[in-house]
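Bumping with the actual sequence this time:
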Amino acid sequence: MFLLFLVGIILSSFAYSASNSLGADTQVPPKGAAINERVGERIPLQLSLRNEEGKTIQVAQLFRKKNGKRIPILLIPSYFSCQHLCSYTFQGIRKAADAATRNGFIPGRNYRIVSVSIKPTEKTKTALETGKKIRDGFQQAKIPKEGWVFLTGEEQEIQKLTQAVGFLYKPDGKEFSHLAASVLLSPDGKITRYLYGISFTERALRLSLVEATNGTIGGISEKILLYCFRYDSVKGKYTVFAWSFVRIGAILTMAFLLGTWLILSKKKPSKKA
């Protein structure tokens, strides 16, 4: 009975802390801004954008490393001259990505972060300066330029990309009204998950990347976490999947009872003098 009680306390504590740690910031949608989730759909890979050197590249190239291996993408629609929401979002995502490097999730190695400016007049110089500033802020690992790229482009190309991922925004003077949302893309360009807010936990980032690759990256710990958590599209975060904990508790209980039975069955009755 004591073991059952202890198991219950451990699982309850873990569930409480995890449900609070995997969430994203909530936000009130500004006028004209929205996210229409399109999970399962693919983005147009033939679109052309400009990298930080001003060279034109196709979106398809972003999914490939130099060795030709395909990797998932964390896409961040934003703009680089924004000093408020976008700046906070970059800092929040950098914090999560920096922490995730301790578990082997390193931008440029097994996934790529791609920030695309929704502002068609954004200069390449601004993209280059913003990229360097963000990448230099990593503490746990040195992130190469190809690990987190900052792209600009023509208005038509930008709109095709943002429409494909359901990212709606509206010009507001010299600024733009939009939400803070990041889009997970599988190595073949399929939308797999949306993460909301100016920040989210490194665990949420790891789980969403594992999902985006069907488990081809990540270790046993991420697979266990995905067994215990499910993404709640209404709450916009990973939440505890209660039935998984019930099954874990049942397995531990059966193991305890079986162990107890084996120990007692091996004990021989004492001989009377």
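The tokens above came from a reply further down the thread. Residues 1-26, 241-246 have pLDDT under 50 and may be disordered.
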